Each structure stands twice: as C-alpha cells, then as structure tokens.
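>> received
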Amino acid sequence: MVKICCIGAGYVGGPTMAVIALKCPAIEVAVVDISVSRITAWNSDQLPIYEPGLDAVVKQCRGKNLFFSTDVEKHVSEADIVFVSVNTPTKTSGLGAGKAADLTYWESAARMIADVSKSDKIVVEESTVPVKTAEAIEKILTHNSKGIKFQILSNPEFLAEGTAIQDLFSPDRVLIGGRETPEGEKAIQALKAVYANWVPEDRILTTNLWSAELSKLAANAFLAQRISSVNAMSALCEATGANITEVSYAVGKDSRIGPKFLNASVGFGGSCFQKDILNLVYICECNGLPEVAEYWKQVIKINDYQKNRFVNRVVSSMFNTVSNKKIAVLGSAFKKDTGDTRETPAIDVCKGLLGGKARLSIYDPQVTEDQIQRDLVMNKFDWDHPLHLQPMSPTTVKRVSVVWDAYEATKGAHGVCILTEWDEFKNLDYKKIYDNMQKPAFIFDGRNIADMDKLREIGFIVYSIGKPLDGWLKDMPAVA
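>> returned
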C-alpha cells in the first residue's frame, strides 16, 4: 500500500489529504502536526476549520485510510510521498522584512525528513513558497541524506476557501513541477498517478520546478490585480455617479475578460494574495527588476486604499466622528463560507474605527470571539505563524464586544458595516434592525449585498461601494 504523509494540518493540508483519501482508498494517508489541539480537533466531531462538505469527507475516511496524528516522525519515516504544507509567513525582521517569505518552518521540516527517513522519498511542496525554494530544500535533504535519495516536487494548491472541497473534486488543473531528469520524471509520474484516480489526465499539467512555483504566485497576483482594478474603478464610479455593478457586468461580458473576480468590495483578504504579491515583489527586486516590482506593489496599495476609503466614508458620513458611537460589524471572515480571518479587511476597518474611538459590536456566524480578539491585537503577519507561537490575546479589546446574533450586534447602533458577504446578511429583517438603532441610522455595505432601494425606503442612509451616492453622503465627502 502506498503511504502518504502530510506535514501540516491546516487549511491546505487537511482538506487536500481528506479528498486524496476519499478518492484513493488504496492509499493510506496520514496528516501530522505538532499542535495537539489541532490534531485533537481533526479527530473530533468539531473540525478545526469550517469548509462546506469537508465534514462529510473526513468522517467517511477517518480511521479507515485517513489518520490525524501528532507522531510526526513515525509517519514521515514510513511514507513514500511526504507533502509539506507548513506556514511560510512573511518575514518581520532581517533581510527582506515585510516582503520575503520566512522559510524557517520549511527548513525545519526538511531537516526532520532527512533525519528520520530510512527509505527513498518523494517530497512535495504544497504550501505556497517563493521560487527556488525547492532548490534550497533539495540541498538540505541531499547534504543530510545518509545515502537516501529524495526527489523534490512542487504541487501548489489552487483552492478557494469556501469552495475548497469542490475545487479538489473537480480542479481546473493540477500542477506538478519536478526535475527534468529520469528520476525527476519518475517522481512526477508517481504523484500524477495519485491524482489520476479522479482528475482527467488533460487537467494534470507537468512543468519544471521553477515554473510550478512561479505559477502559483502569478495566479494569485493576477486574481488580486483584478480585485484591485475593480475597486479602483469603484472609487471613480462614486465620484462620477456611475454604478460599479453595471460597469463590472458590462466589462465581464467581454469573453477575453470574463465575470469572475470583478465584484467591488471593501478589499481582498485571505492567507495568500497579499503575502504572495509581497513575495513576488521581493523576487523581482532580487532579480534586478524594480519596475516589475513597483507594478505589483500597486495592487497592494489599492487594496489598502480601499479599506482606508471605507473607514473614511463611515467617519465622514456620521458627522465626521465615531467617538463613543456604537458601530455594528457584520462579518469578520475574509469571505463567506469560511471561518478564516487571515488578512481579512475587517481587521483594518475595525482598527480604523477603533482609532476613532468607536465602540464595536461584532458578529460573524463562523468566527469565534477569541479569534476576533486575537486579530485585533496581533501585529501584521503574526497570524501566519503556528498558533502556539502567536502572541496570546488579552481577554478583550476595550470598546469591542463579540455577539452571536446580528440583531444583538445592531441594537442601539448608530451604524452597521457589512464586511463579509454571508448569505444570512442578505435576508435579515432590516426593518427590525432600523427600529432598534439610533437615528439617523446608517448602513455601510462593504460587499454590495444589500438592496439599497429597500433600505432607503425603510429610512436608512446607505453607502454601498461604487454605487451612486445619496444626497446625505454627497454633502459629507470622504477624503481618503
């Protein structure tokens, strides 16, 4: 029986290995992590991450050919193929701080693999890594191999949180990069055979190592660029009276462009977009391409601008002060159908409002109070270190309460900020919400999910990103 071991039981490793176990009953799959609490959760009824469809997949395979364990060395030593899905946070100090990826956890995993291996292995990069990481890992493994042969493959994931299981069941493509040698080709074919259990062969692409690594960064940069482009247009729409929804629809009808990733919002989030673009910027700078680096920096700048613009709109609309006003925040996750808050725009918006001394009441159906409080006190990039290495959060951030009901969050509030596009927020009883708010009552829709006309009929003053401004907002312009 082929044995696969995945180091790292997070958002990538857990779902990917669960689907491999489901689709390949003849393969034994072990997911290992040093975090006891995380592995305990994977073995319980309450999985550590929320992803539609994941629960059913895990429960179907767990204990049969899918195992979650803290016995890292045992499972690594027994495996034929070792996936490495550990954190690659952005460096916060030293050379490349604020841009380069920190490969501490990757290097440590590689040294451990070399240390415990007693047979030849295929080592697969699954976490997002900078170009040429495979070369560095290869050197560590080779110099510590004790005669054991390792082949390094790059197999970047292209999952979208919220649809990860569907993406795994029916991927646009599976990308496998390896060395252009007989041994490298053999390793590529071995991994290809795993995916071929359910993925059509024409969707399994094989490249050299560097192309596979760079393709992941490029794909995320292109997607983020689309979001920043439409968000830049949303600011122009507000200034001119155009409607970003109509503009996006018209643009997306061009078959060369297409409609995806053209929804204006308060900004993009998630674990990959900003981190990967910063990584791309660093690689360009290191390779003497400052103009290319500057081009990609603008994608991040527009994203930060959009979040700042939203906060400024909230403050300026409410008589230029939010001091001691209760603001309800609906949504903390970076997108619907996930509990992930990494780089969510909600963090920057909340910090901006807290800077103006607002009182926040936050509700999200999938994010815990502890996570929300941690997010508001963590420094940038702290979130991407393993949980036990993150700073502990205080019990509460002053002026922030976390509640488990949208109506409780909005009771007595001066304004409501919609920051995640959860379906339930579209169907709230906004008349009930309006009746229990301070007047004038404001709604700031950062996801363009609410019916502006209906809300205005109820009596709300409404701001929706990229939509024509009502008279009130025109009289109180936001300066970003």
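>> The chain has a mean pLDDT of 91.
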